[in-house]
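=== Discrete structure encoding ===
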Amino acid sequence: MKTDMNMTIEGITLSELRTVSPDEDAKKEGIKKTITLRIKYDGLTLKDVFAKAFKSDVVSWQNGGAGRKNYDNIVDKSVIEISAKAPGAGPQENPMDAMIREARAAGVDPKDEKAFAAYIIAEMKKR
């Protein structure tokens, strides 16, 4: 069966419970609001929806362990195949938690602000 990627979507709405904070400092202080985010996909084509998913998958690959961190092993002009996974299929980690975990693995105490800042700057220079 071949799917027409130009088919228009009607009557599709996805909802998810989320929390929002005005900024990182407020988030750390526990200042947040819980909302239900509803996204209506009416009027989009299947091609539009897949383009959004593709962009998200590409960013995840680039920022994850397979992309930038594996740069030296990537052959120029090669084809790299990855399998998309359903949202929530794997463990979810926010970027700050990942940075703290990686700093600790590198022997840096995130509570030592100077050492942690130096670690972050060194990691940024690598990228």
In short: The longest strand covers residues 13-20.
